[in-house]
Amino acid sequence: MDFETLDYAVKDSILTLTLNRPDRMNAFNGVMRRELIQAFDAADADDDVRVVVVTGAGDRAFCAGADLEKGGDTFNRDKRAQEPDLDRLRDGGGTVTLRIYECTKPVIAAINGAAVGVGVTMTLPMDIRMASSNARVGFVFARRGITMEACSSWFLPRLVGMQQAAEWVYTGRLVNAEDAHRGGLIHSVHAPDELLPAAYALAREIADNTSAMSAALNRQMMWRMMGADHPMEAHKIDSRAIAFMGQSADVKEGVTAFLEKRPAKFTMKPSQDMPDFYPWWKEREFE
């Protein structure tokens, strides 16, 4: 697929989605917002994509945050041209994170450099964040006179705890990769030239060994339960999902392959084989 701000490349069931504005440190703008949503739409529709790896072009930045070329009016919606497909009252970064949150594929962030503002908040609904030892992250909103965005007030405290989230957000300081790892935001830290190979190795393990349907359902089950108020909510959806998959072609193949001591060849496709209760979170009540 051809994009202006992204590079979209699928190889061996892994989609590498590269933020590609290296001359602007891959800064986020309206075009990138629209294209990220389109890219995740395409990934969900393509059953050849098993895992998404998101990284940045160049060696300086993953994404340096919002493009500040408009100066002091960068965040003033009344003084900039409105994007025709965006509600004036909605935060653009939030439309991206919500789309990633809805994704049916595992998403790995390979943070290769600076990830600031929306450059880091867009990674919060991704499942695993791996970072270069050169990476820096910053929730710098208070230092720019704005507030948290991209749904980060929901994601960040759930991922790292309220106390750690408060420290990073209140100070707005840049945090190095090791400190972000210790704080629970980053899964692992790698030498710069080892980051993408490590991300691909993890993606390869997922793609080669697991059912795409299991991955899709498990991803949404875990994310949706982060906001549940009782384990009974997990029991409700666990019961429906295990009953559906328990009589599926994939479970038959998975068990048979285990007994025959061979790699499984799963055939179910999330784009067309989702259970009739999906998406269950849009129901008003459990039936």
Topology of this structure?
Elements lengths: L5 E6 L2 E6 L10 H16 L5 E6 L4 E3 L28 H10 L5 E5 L2 E3 L1 H4 L6 E5 L3 E3 L2 H4 L7 H9 L1 H10 L2 E3 H6 L5 E3 L4 H15 L2 H14 L5 H16 L2 H11 L10 H4 L14
Parallel strand pairs: 2-3, 3-5, 4-6, 5-7, 6-8, 7-10
Antiparallel strand pairs: 1-2, 8-9
Helix pairs in contact: 1-2, 5-6, 9-10
Could you please describe the fold and organization of this structure?
- With 287 residues, this protein is an alpha/beta fold.
- The chain folds into two domains: 6-206, 2-enoyl-CoA Hydratase, Chain A, domain 1 (Alpha-Beta Complex), CATH 3.90.226; 210-282, Lyase 2-enoyl-coa Hydratase, Chain  A, domain 2.
- The protein contains twelve helices and ten strands.
- A six-stranded mixed β-sheet has the order 1-2-3-5-7-10, sandwiched between helices. A four-stranded mixed β-sheet has the order 4-6-8-9.
- β2 (14-19), α1 and β3 form a beta-alpha-beta unit.
- The longest helix has 16 residues, at 30-45.
- The chain is globular and about 55 Å long.
- Mean pLDDT is 92; it is low at 71-76.
Task: Please tell me the overall pLDDT.
Answer: 92
CATH class of the largest domain: Alpha Beta
**What strand line-up does the widest sheet have?**
1-2-3-5-7-10
CATH superfamily of the largest domain: 2-enoyl-CoA Hydratase, Chain A, domain 1
Order of helices and strands: EEHEEHEEHEEHHHEHEHHHHH
CATH architecture of the largest domain: Alpha-Beta Complex
Distance between the termini: 41 Å
Beta-strand residue fraction: 5-15%
- Quickly give the structural class: alpha/beta
**Major sheet characteristics:** 6 strands, mixed
> What is the total number of structural domains?
2
